[in-house]
């Protein structure tokens, strides 16, 4: 009657198949979002999305492997009771693993707002995520892509085999700016790099990727072929 997109399965990680059957008979495409990741087996085919919840504010980086194993299963990042600077960790976690974020500021009457700076960061990330969604949700994401730095620099790669581009997501888990070179490009034909999120920089030097990432920050680079094509 309401035309809602679907249902939030509060506290759940499983459903009986008959629920999905009845929903499909009513209207195909209704979303089922569980609070916990679906349990093993059939539920992953029945539950559309789930929250990436129940992680600690520290350490970072930290990734949700389900997001990379099954990229079609969208898992927004949430940790609703975090406050102040811990919410920045929440945002960094979402951006680092190329995932949406749940904005929840009134938790059963307790007000835990995001700061103006944090709201700006979320808006910037949302715009980038939607623009390059086909890459972020591509079929071949790679978690913790190898980087030679060894000083607290981490990387994820988001790509799709049918496209000619990739997004490299870097996170600097140190208190100092990191400059690192000699990072193997995901594809050899990638010869152009563009910063699409974050304050750092990236370039291609001698056939390898070189980056500059501020402390405790996320940097997203769009890697393209010589013609600047990325298929997005």
What are the SSEs and their pairings?
Layout: E1 6-9, H1 17-26, E2 31-34, H2 43-46, E3 49-50, H3 65-69, H4 85-96, E4 106-107, E5 110-111, H5 116-131, H6 133-136, E6 153-159, E7 166-172, E8 178-183, E9 192-197, E10 201-205, E11 208-213, E12 218-224
Parallel strand pairs: 1-2, 2-3
Antiparallel strand pairs: 4-5, 6-7, 7-12, 8-11, 9-12, 10-11
Helix pairs in contact: 4-5
Walk me through what this model shows.
- It contains six helices and twelve strands.
- The model has no long low-confidence stretch (mean pLDDT 88).
- α1 links the parallel β1 (6-9) and β2 (31-34).
- It is globular and about 60 Å long.
- With 232 residues, the chain is α+β, with helices and mostly antiparallel strands.
- It has a four-stranded antiparallel beta sheet.
